[in-house]
Amino acid sequence: DEVLRLSGVGKTYNPGTPLAQNVLQDIDLRLARGELCALIGPSGSGKSTLLNLIGLLDSPSAGELYLQGRPTRALDDAARTRLRNRAIGFVFQFHHLIPAFSVLDNVLMPLMIRHGKPDAEDRARALELLAAVGLADFAAKKANQISGGQQQRVAIARALVTRPALLLADEPTGNLDTRTAESVFALFRRFNREFGCAVLVVTHDPRLAAQCARTVELVDGRIVRDAANTAAK
Ligand code: ADP
Ligand code: ADP
């Protein structure tokens, strides 16, 4: 039940130029179905780079990355995009909702990208997820008419609408006040439990990391700690 495996992954930006920078080295990492894992580390340690590699938004310079058992390095752009759209959901610090679109249409967007015009089943699933994040009554509102915390909830619903095996979140609560951050984070835990999708979340907040069953720490592009957190609820 392995969702993700990285084997000897490295990343060098601007290779072969005077600006060459080794940002990730010898990364070995496995995530199983249903794991909730925090990714922590100082600014510049390579967390976003790692998330971009795992999300197939960028390619490793070394090593291999397996998604659901499939090696990804040799895939062409079209195959990578297909696999990304099928297997991965993203939540970013800035949610990137389309402001003039309704909340419902924002949640439907990944399905529209996948197969065009949404059908009744798509709408039902989007509405079910909006209800799950507490926004059933906001479906028809424009995305720019709701609060920041509500927008981040919409982004979570959008990330889950394709039923991804892996949910990647890059500082999803970085822009929110403490209480809103807590309630948004509670949604990750809930969907992790209910849907069994693996969740990898970058956070600077030690209290939120402590709620994850596992913590991986990066320093200078290397994993320096990978530990179970037995206290996590
Ligand atoms: P973190 O997310 O932990 O703050 P990043 O992955 O953003 O770390 O950055 C790690 C290092 O890689 C930093 O030194 C950063 O300046 C560099 N870096 C990030 N993205 C790029 C890029 N697209 N081109 C060149 N260098 C980059
Ligand atoms: P099963 O009992 O068949 O395993 P699931 O747990 O897969 O059922 O699905 C239960 C409900 O959760 C369904 O309504 C489904 O649409 C929804 N669901 C399942 N997985 C996800 C996911 N990763 N993201 C969003 N919704 C999901």
Automatic annotation (TrEMBL):
Principal location class: membrane
Entries under SMART domains matching the protein: AAA
Keywords: ATP-binding, Cell membrane, Lipoprotein, Membrane, Nucleotide-binding, Transmembrane, Transport
InterPro entries linked to this entry: AAA+_ATPase, ABC_transporter-like_ATP-bd, ABC_transporter-like_CS, ABC_transpr_LolD-like, MacB-like_ATP-bd, P-loop_NTPase
Keyword GTP-binding assigned: no
Alphabetical list of CDD domains matching this protein: ABC_MJ0796_LolCDE_FtsE (cd03255)
Entries under PROSITE patterns matching the protein: ABC_TRANSPORTER_1, ABC_TRANSPORTER_2
Residue ranges of domain ABC transporter in the record: 4-232
SUPFAM superfamilies: P-loop containing nucleoside triphosphate hydrolases
Family according to the record: Belongs to the ABC transporter superfamily. Macrolide exporter (TC 3.A.1.122) family.
Protein name according to UniProt: Lipoprotein-releasing system ATP-binding protein
Organism, scientific name: Geopseudomonas guangdongensis
Record lineage: Bacteria, Pseudomonadati, Pseudomonadota, Gammaproteobacteria, Pseudomonadales
